[in-house]
Sequence to fold (822 residues):
Amino acid sequence: MILITRREQFSAAHRLFRNNWDDEKNLEAFGKCSNPNWHGHNYVLFVTVKGEINPETGFVVNIKKLSTIIKETVISKLDHKNINIDVDFMHGKLASTENLAIGIWDQLEPSISAIGIELHCIKIMETENNYIEYYGN
Amino acid sequence: MILITRREQFSAAHRLFRNNWDDEKNLEAFGKCSNPNWHGHNYVLFVTVKGEINPETGFVVNIKKLSTIIKETVISKLDHKNINIDVDFMHGKLASTENLAIGIWDQLEPSISAIGIELHCIKIMETENNYIEYYGN
Amino acid sequence: MILITRREQFSAAHRLFRNNWDDEKNLEAFGKCSNPNWHGHNYVLFVTVKGEINPETGFVVNIKKLSTIIKETVISKLDHKNINIDVDFMHGKLASTENLAIGIWDQLEPSISAIGIELHCIKIMETENNYIEYYGN
Amino acid sequence: MILITRREQFSAAHRLFRNNWDDEKNLEAFGKCSNPNWHGHNYVLFVTVKGEINPETGFVVNIKKLSTIIKETVISKLDHKNINIDVDFMHGKLASTENLAIGIWDQLEPSISAIGIELHCIKIMETENNYIEYYGN
Amino acid sequence: MILITRREQFSAAHRLFRNNWDDEKNLEAFGKCSNPNWHGHNYVLFVTVKGEINPETGFVVNIKKLSTIIKETVISKLDHKNINIDVDFMHGKLASTENLAIGIWDQLEPSISAIGIELHCIKIMETENNYIEYYGN
Amino acid sequence: MILITRREQFSAAHRLFRNNWDDEKNLEAFGKCSNPNWHGHNYVLFVTVKGEINPETGFVVNIKKLSTIIKETVISKLDHKNINIDVDFMHGKLASTENLAIGIWDQLEPSISAIGIELHCIKIMETENNYIEYYGN
Fold:
């Protein structure tokens, strides 16, 4: 088995809260992440794919093409944006890193399979101390 | 000369824009950093101080005390906040990393001199590709 | 499958040696790691857990709670300590990173399952060039 | 299951191209990586092995011995070399990171099994944004 | 004083040797860096500039503009190139990191002063263990 | 002005305490760093030198020679050692990073000037959050 990973980054604002909870309950559940005026992160995204090596090129996938797919499909929607407000695929979801990882998987998966490789893992680092890995359902 | 540097971090939202400019002019001057719905970063702050070594302790300054001063004076005001809205010492200023560095210097300097050492440099990394260093006036 | 990882750190002294071996044999087996006067490291610990996303919070686990468990259960016992002498769960064991990873797993596992999630991996970096991953028995 | 990883590095030149393609077709397939005058990278290699803990030493494997095997078997052939020209185990292969990972696996595997442990993964970072992982056939 | 630093990267091949020395003498002076078939690095470039803060924008310089100047003036000439052969401003010079830093300074300085700021430092990391800083004559 | 920096590392144990203070007063002054059973760090050492570029080699100094001097003069005395007990040049001094930086400067300076270059700075990172820079008297 051979895996290829591409790292991309985006800087975004977000807030963790539930509309049907008051400020106090949001603060209790989400701590300072519930600040009504938002906060933000430099998110680091690792997209891992797998496939067979093409004997003509020695590549599983041209890393430039993979990078372009990631940028067009997800980074352009997330970078310098507000995850709660600006990002269509996050509407109606809590803006946790867990949900973001699943959202990015769902955005990327069709474009990845369309070029004959398989999406293996979405990893998102929210800070240098916290990260999420999602391997699909 | 001997210098001590303490690294701290904060995650914050911000936006670059001028009230007296329309959206188009803000976009031209600040690009995607002018997004009205905010974006954010994991800012990394390096505070460098200088002084004499205390022969009793071998320290220029107890790094724990320095860290506490930085956390109480600036990190508590910036972490998980909106720099434009929530941060008193940034009111009325453009939320650029340059102005943030100067603002942090002005916040920290009195507490640093009060313990008998000298503030030497404020360095802020906004992303792994961009950083500002401010050495005072 | 969704995984969450929290990074924590501790600085500790240790020594690799066997009481029933003489200095020469210890030196042969463990090299400079057998120095009788100890040496030390900044250990970096990655704790990975898995579970279902709570639809109310968007979290598998509140990362703050996970961090608190790790700090109370293992970091407080290891940070600024001597692994061979000060750490109860390492008594009678060789202070290798392998044994440390297993020891940390055994310390953490009950507290992790108690909050309804599953411990997946303990990773310890002893230096930037060496690390151990333990996935349980 | 317990895994040990050793990081090593090498700086090498390479070029991606096929002899049976003209310059234009090579440029189309490989982009700037096909530059006829070569380019190069600081490659970072992670070798992961697995095995049982030796109760006498607390080690799965002495990391120094593992490092020596990696240096003698692969780093000495790759560091400050041209992957296309100087490296025997890459002759006749496209110098992609995918093929390099497989080549390194094949070089290392016999020496790793010879000391009673199992090779688990070869990971190569070509840049901080791209890496390959190979787990054997 | 306020300084701004932009990080950029390039991957290039090079070789250290003198035409008027034979292979043996080159090997003695430059070690494995004299390999006739080239080797290469992921060079990391830090460009530091200084100036006054523009009160309209809060910027010393728009970091995007600075990045564009660096990419157009030096990265486009160096990335995926052979420093000895392909890079006009290095012709006739030994391809040491010292000379590269001076060469990059001389390339960048006119474009930097043209936008009203001052070039302060060129820093190049050849590997994570070695770097050069050049502050001009 | 042109500066060259070499990074080296060492793992060591230490303890901060004064013999003429009791345990309570040591704990008050040095916190957990006064643990009588020692603790330790992976120290990262940056040695910066300056000089003229040798036109024959393009080097201010052969980085390999600089590395050898650092390893022979200081790393061999510090790596896998106890700074308080094993390191001759630290005897009778508090094992703070400040004093260590000065001690390393005094060890290195004669060997650096002996090869016709000038020692400019000793930087020691004790953890990723704390570092000391010493520029000589």
User: Anything to note?
Assistant: Helices of chain D lie at 23-30, 63-78, 83-86, 97-114.
